[in-house]
Please model this.
Amino acid sequence: MTKCKLPKQSTIYSNSNFEIGKSEPNLHSGKTFGTHSDYELIFDSSIVKNPSDTSGACHAGMEFKEGHVGMISQVKYYTSGIDKDLFVGTTIFQGSMDGSSYLDLFAVDENIHEGWNYHKWEHTEDYPRYRFYRFYGS
Model:
């Protein structure tokens, strides 16, 4: 008799190779966080509100529950009435496993424009897999 030991939850590898489970997008599966009192405006699905304070270093992001990661293929963000100089060279999208040590995943560059902006990873093996993600502005 052959016995198999399976993880409590399907993994990316088992989903891809053995079709154990199906990974589905869920953009609201994490808990949001930020440094300003109105950081929730970033996640409210409204593109007409602006934060009350745009000065100083700040961050806003999302964390997934303990023992889980979010695998992302793209980051999509909306800007309105922007001054490029406030974002280029100062705004970075980051990932972290522990919420304290962050790795830079991409920096906002001179291609930022009013409207929807995107950053995409083309290959599945390059998709970031972290428990915490955030935009950090200095």
